[in-house]
Amino acid sequence: MTTVNILSGGAAQGLVRGLSEAFKAQTGFGIDGEFGAVGVMADKLRAATPADLVILTKALLAKLAAEKLLVASSIADVGRVETALAVRSRDPRVTVNTEADLREVLRSADAIYVPNTKASTAGQHVAKVLDQLGIAYEVTSRLKIFPNGATAMRELAASTATRPIGCTQATEIIATDGIALSGSLPPGCELVTMYTAGVTTQAAHPNEAAALIALLTGADHRDLRRRAGFAG
């Protein structure tokens, strides 16, 4: 089967998976590609990794468009995603209403599962929040850092720690079996990120890539986006 190739932040993986059958029915194409830390995906595009479209943060897509790596007229917002907390499905949910609550929750965890703290949106934010809370040094030995949020959440689900917790994009939490969305980060620590899609200038299948973007952003799939963790 001919496929459209994607380079995407992990935040969009569940939504893309949910649209794969509709896309195949409409175009006859499958969907292939990579999902991971947005900085890594952007660098792959810059290194000429074959891709028909990208789904990354809005700020990063603007940079790629300025670098003439995307068709500017094709760019469209998919939706906003918050960075949130996760626990194993069998564990009690945690509630954090203030920075003090979050500090206590993180200090009491014996393992903290997060994505790449250098190249991923959520991972960079976690590192910033730990500094902000004044506990970065204290918890550094308990950080379990993985290449992307999806991997971090799968590892959280399998964790044998006593009181593990995770923090990544809500979409990655929702898409992972065995863990549960445990709540938003409190005021002052929150992060909501707009994800945006665009066709690459070197796309082998630009029409099909544009069709997939239309599915990702269309009104007909608003409920699917919401269930996947995207807000309008």
Instruction: Tell me the number of strands.
Output: 9
The secondary structure category is alpha/beta
Share of helical residues = 40-55%
Strand content: 25-35%
Order of helices and strands: EHEHEHEHEHHEHEHEEHH
Largest sheet: 9 strands, mixed
Number of helices: 10
What oligomeric state is this? single chain
Give the low-confidence spans: none
| Shape label | elongated
CA distance, first residue to last residue: 33 Å
Mean pLDDT: 95
Structural description of this entry:
- The chain is of the alpha/beta class and 232 residues long.
- Strands 1, 2, 3, 4, 5, 6, 7, 8 and 9 form a 9-stranded mixed sheet that branches.
- Strand 1, helix 1 and strand 2 form a beta-alpha-beta unit.
- Helix 1 crosses helix 9.
Please describe the topology of this protein:
Blueprint: E1 3-9, H1 13-27, E2 30-36, H2 38-46, E3 53-57, H3 58-66, E4 76-88, H4 99-108, E5 111-115, H5 121-133, H6 136-139, E6 143-146, H7 149-157, E7 164-169, H8 170-174, E8 179-184, E9 192-199, H9 206-217, H10 222-228
Parallel strand pairs: 1-2, 1-3, 5-6, 5-7
Antiparallel strand pairs: 3-9, 4-7, 4-8, 4-9
Helix pairs in contact: 1-9
